[in-house]
Amino acid sequence: MSDLKTPCVEISKIDVEEGFNARTHMDDKELEGLAASLGTAGVVQPLSVRPGKNGRFTLVAGHRRFAAAQRGGLKEVPITVSEGNAHLSSLVENIHREELDPIDAALGLRALAGELNLETNKAIAGKVGKSVPWVSERLRLLDLPKGVQRYIAEGFVPIEGERLLRDIAVVSPRVAECICELAKRQGYKGRYFIDRFGDIFAATAEAHFNNKPTMISARRVPVSVIAKGKKRRELADRLHAISSYKSDDPGLSFGDAEIDAARALGCLVEHRTERRGMASTMAFITDVTVAADLFDRGLGQLEKAAKKKVEEEEAWKGHRKELGESEKDERAAKREEAKARKEIAEIGNEEVAGKLLTGRTGARRKQHGLARAKAIALLFIDDNPQLAGSGLRLTLPTLRDIEVKELKSGKERKKVIWSDAEQCREELRRRVNEASTEAQVNEVMAEAIVAAVVVDQEQLPQSKRIHWFLGNREAEKLLAPDIKAARPRRRRISKK
Fold first, then answer.
1. 125 belongs to a structural domain
2. Which residues contact 464 (CB under 8 A, 6 or more apart)?
3. CB-CB neighbours of 42 under 10 Å
4. Distance, CA of 204 to CA of 207 (rounded, Å)
5. pTM attached to this predicted model
6. How far apart are CA 345 and CA 355, in angstroms?
7. The domain containing residue 31 runs over which residues?
8. Whose CB among 75, 105, 188, 251 lies 3.0–4.6 Å from 183's, allowing a Cys bridge?
9. Are residues 235 and 166 in the same domain?
10. What is the pLDDT along the chain (496 residues), one digit of tens a residue?
11. Residues 174 and 246 in one domain
12. Are 31 and 37 in contact (CB under 8 A)?
C-alpha cells in the first residue's frame, strides 16, 4: 500500500484575488520569521485553493503562508483544492485558527453576510461555527471610528472596550481616538484599560495631542475657556458683580439643566463609574459655542436671582420707612431682634449638643463614617491647595504627559509636561470622591501627604516646583513610619 501524498504546485501558478484576503494587514517581522522557518521545514499546512483557468489556481486560505513562501524563495507549495464558497472557507479557517485580529474578523463577517444574504447575526454565526454573542461583539466594532478600530486591531484596546467607547464615539470620534492614543502612550492595555477607563478618560482632557479635541469640564467652566479679549473681561466683571469671591479667571459651575441641555444637543461626552454602591460621573462639553451659550444662560439666571434679592431688601427698607419708625425705634427693634436671636441660638446649640451625643453610636458612625471622612479630606485639600501638586505629580503617571519630538538628526527628544497645582488638586479630589471606605479615604490622603514630604523636587526645573510643608510636628511624628518606609535610600553624586 503506497503512502498518500499532498499534491504540490508551482507557487507561480497561484494567483491572489484582490480584496479576497481575510487579513487586511500582515506584520513584516512575523513574515520574515515565518519565511525563515519555511525555508528550513517547508510549508507543513497546505494552502487552500480553488481551480482557475489554464491550469492556474486562486488562493482561498493561507495568505500569510503564501506570502512567507514567496519571501523564502520556495518554488512549490502543497495545496488542497476547495470547491465550496471560497470566502466562507477562508474566513472560517482564519477565525478558528485565531489568526485574525478582531477588526479583520468583523470585516470578514460583514462581507460574508452581504455575499450570502445573511440578515441576522444568528445566521452568520451558524455559517462560521461561532456563537451569536461572539459575532455580535465583533460586528459592533465596525460602528466605531476608523482611528479607534486601528488600536483594537493592534491589540492596545480590548474588544470589551467597545461598550465604554461607543457613546463617546457617537458624540466625538476624535475624543474616542485620543482616549485610545493616551492608553497606548501610558501602556494601559487589556484588562487594565477596562478597570482604569475613568482615569484615562479624565486624563485625556488634560493631555497633549495633535488636533486636540475640545473637552470642557462641566464641573467648572472658566471664563478664559469660552471667551477672549473684551468679551472675557465683560463676563468676568458680571461674575464679580454678583460674587464676593474675586479671581483672575472666574468660572461658573453648570447645574443639571445645563448638562442636560448639552447632552440633548449632542455635545456631551460622559462616563459613569460605579464602585461598591458609589457612583460618580465625569462629563465634558465638546463644543465651545454651546458651552458659551450655556454659560451666558446660567450667568443670566444668577444675575436675576441677585437682582431679586436686592429688590426684596430695598422693599423691606421702604416698608419700615412707611411705617414711620424713627431711627431710635429702629435701633431698639434691632436690639430686641438681636436678643431674640441670641435666645434662639442658645436653645438651638443645646439641641445640637444633644444630637451630637446621640450621633456617636456605633451604628451612626458606620452609616455616615465614609461621608464624614470625605468631607474632612475635601476641606483639608481646599485649605492646602499646593499639597497634591507638591508630591503626587512626581509619583502618579496620570499627572504627567510625555511629548515626543523628532529632531532634524532623526533622533527623538522626549519632554515631560507636568500637571499644575490645580490639576493635581482636582485629581486628589477625584480619588477621595471615588473611595468606598473610610480606610481608603485615609490611605489616599496619607499617600498625598507622605509624597509631598518625601519627594525630591530636584527632578523639576525651578519654575515648575511647587513647595508644601507639613508644618505640624505632632502630625509628622504620627506619620513617621509611613514617611520612613517611603523615603528612598541616599545616593551620592558621582564625581567625574
1. no
2. 418
3. 14
4. 5
5. 0.52
6. 15
7. 8-100
8. 188
9. no
10. 334 456 788 888 888 876 555 455 666 666 676 666 665 556 667 777 777 787 788 887 777 778 888 887 888 888 777 655 555 666 666 665 556 788 888 888 888 888 788 889 999 888 888 899 999 999 999 999 999 999 999 889 999 999 999 999 999 999 999 999 999 999 888 888 998 899 999 999 999 999 999 999 988 888 888 888 899 898 888 888 887 777 888 888 888 888 999 999 999 999 988 766 667 888 999 999 999 999 988 888 888 888 898 888 888 877 666 666 566 677 777 888 888 888 888 777 876 766 666 666 666 666 688 898 899 989 988 988 888 878 888 888 888 888 888 887 878 888 888 888 888 889 889 999 999 998 999 999 898 898 888 888 888 888 888 888 888 888 888 988 988 888 887 777 666 5
11. no
12. no
CB 444 within 8 A of CB 435: yes
Alpha carbon distance 78, 10 (integer Å): 9
**Domain boundary residue, one of 311, 343, 378:** 311
Q: Which three cell numbers stand for residue 311?
A: 429688590
310: its cell numbers: 436686592
Distances 296 to 221, 226, 235, 436, 488 between C-alpha atoms, Å: 11, 10, 8, 37, 51
375 in a domain, yes or no? no
Q: Are residues 199 and 230 in the same domain?
A: no
Q: Which of 294, 299, 215 is nearest to 262 (CA)?
A: 294
Amino acid residing at 312: E
111 located within any domain:
no
Tell me which residue has cell 455616615.
368
Q: How many domains does the chain have?
A: 4
Buried b (16+ CB within 10 A) or exposed e, 157-191: bbbebbebbeebbebbbbbbbbbbbbbbbbebbee
Residues 201 and 242 in one domain: no
CA proximity to 469, closest of 405, 409, 397, 384? 384
Same structural domain for residues 407 and 486?
A: yes
